[in-house]
From TrEMBL:
One of its GO terms (biological process) is error-free translesion synthesis. This is Protein ApaG. The gene is apaG. Pfam families: DUF525. Residues 70-89 are annotated as: Disordered. Gene3D superfamilies: ApaG domain (2.60.40.1470). InterPro entries: ApaG_domain (IPR007474), ApaG_sf (IPR036767), Uncharacterised_ApaG (IPR023065). Residues 3-127 form the ApaG domain.
Length: 130
């Protein structure tokens, strides 16, 4: 698992490879990732937007931006959390994801919360010894 805290918002991500949805012979590899967003502070916040940078093993970058997550813009009261699962395909057997959520505080101020960088590894990735 990967975890990072910005201000009082903790984001934890657990990626997992989906063998049954992947086709290595066709250069199609699929991962799911489970995200938990926790409000450990004393102020209500709302998730407004997301921004992902997805980099495959050849260094190609795809950026994804949009409102909310999985069609929602959850409001987190102090002590509350929100969890969801999503996924991404890649044309290579490994990659990395990193991003930010834009949150809105109780007073209307906007701030970015870091999503920790996490690796997407499949059993089809060649092992390199250094």
């Amino acid at each position: 698992m990967y975890s990072e805290t910005t201000r009082t918002i903790r984001v934890t991500v657990k990626p997992f490879y989906l063998e049954d949805q992947s086709s290595p012979a066709e250069n199609h590899y699929v991962w799911a990732y489970h995200v938990k967003i926790e409000n450990t502070g004393g102020e209500k916040v709302q998730l407004r937007t997301r921004h992902w940078r997805i980099t495959d093993a050849l260094g190609r970058v795809q950026e994804v931006r949009g409102p909310g997550v999985v069609g929602e813009q959850p409001v987190l009261e102090p002590g509350e959390s929100f969890e969801y699962t999503s996924g991404t395909p890649l044309p290579t057997p490994s990659g990395i994801m990193v991003g930010t959520y834009q949150m809105e505080g109780a007073a209307g101020e906007m701030f970015d919360v870091r999503i920790p960088a996490f690796s997407l590894d499949s059993p089809h990735q060649p092992v390199r010894l250094n």
